[in-house]
């Protein structure tokens, strides 16, 4: 069985329950930058986040 790998997630989307912050912003506040870098985590630009599926063109 192959491990599940998700290359991008919507963790750059601000959420009301995080006082308008994104989960990634919260991770940046709570963790050392070296940890995020070691895990290969990076913020996704807002214009690249698609919350609804759209047809391939």
Low-confidence segments, given as residue ranges, are none
CA radius of gyration: 14 Å
Task: Kindly report how far apart the N and C termini lie.
Answer: 32 Å
Number of strands: 0
Provide the residue-averaged pLDDT: 76
Approximate shape: flat
- Helix vs. strand class: mainly alpha
How many H/I helical runs?
2
List descriptors:
single chain; 57 residues; mainly alpha; 2 helices; flat
Overall description:
It is built from two helices and no strands. The chain has helices at residues 23-30, 33-38. The longest helix has 8 residues, at 23-30. The model has no long low-confidence stretch (mean pLDDT 76).
Draw up the topology in text.
Layout: H1 23-30, H2 33-38
Short note summarizing the structure:
By secondary structure, this protein is mainly α. 25% of the residues lie in helices and 0% in strands.
């Amino acid at each position: 069985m192959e491990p599940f790998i998700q290359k991008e997630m919507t963790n750059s989307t601000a959420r009301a329950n995080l006082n308008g912050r994104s989960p990634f912003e919260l991770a940046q506040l709570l963790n050392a930058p070296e940890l995020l870098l070691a895990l290969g985590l990076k913020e996704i630009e807002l214009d690249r986040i698609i919350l609804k599926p759209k047809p391939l063109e």
